[in-house]
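re: ur question from yesterday

yeah so i grabbed the chain u mentioned. its 245 aa long if i counted rite. heres the sequnce exactly as i have it in my notes:
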Amino acid sequence: MIDIKDSGESLTEADIASFEQGMGCSLPNEYREFLVGHNGGRPVPYWFSYIDESGQEDTDGVSSLYGLGFWVPDYRNLQIVHQRFSGRIPPEILAIGDDPCGNQICIATQGERQGQLFLWNHEDEHTPPTYRNVIFLADTFNHFINGLHESQNNGITSLNIAIQKDNVADLEKLLAKDADLEETDQFGRTMLENAAIANALRAFEWLYSRGANPRNSLSLAQENARFFPEHERMVKLIAHLTQHQ
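ran it thru and got these structure tokens back, copy pasting raw so excuse formatting
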């Protein structure tokens, strides 16, 4: 049973029709029903499995599913996120959520792939956008949601979820006193760098106080701030903490 937490205010069919008119496309029916019923949120459980580019099974997590309306924060607002990624992802797919690393969970709104879900990997972003960095996830929105599961992986991915939620209490539980703060994920990034990407201010400051090396944190935060103004706070925090290094 999938539970959706932190949903937005209720939407009407007219709200969604207005969004579609602005987009110039029709949302797949299953996804429309989800927006009417939940208007985004955080699914529990949140893990999903997929086949990566090398043909191996991999696991990732849903950080949030986007919603509509003035009350939805910019970083979770379907319309604002679409504007920020316009020209960066293939035009026939729409970003509807993200993972803890900022990769976008997308749904095809037109063409022969309509209704299918994909994972857009920002690590391999290129111009013009193609499907070279887009990985198939599911045939339909409901297949994707109903396939979410509990994970047995308590390693770096669980830490990244805590970082994405800026939850220092969870970080303290997951990290032993002698934990390797320079451990890297599959993208070669440390926990502190992932905190910079996630704009997790409390998590970043806590990890830094534990002795984590900033490495490329500032440049990663600056890159995100180009598209997400709220990340300027992270840029200022890192500059303040590292000014005497």
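noticed a couple things. The first strand starts at residue 3 and ends at 5. also The mean pLDDT is 88.
anyway ttyl
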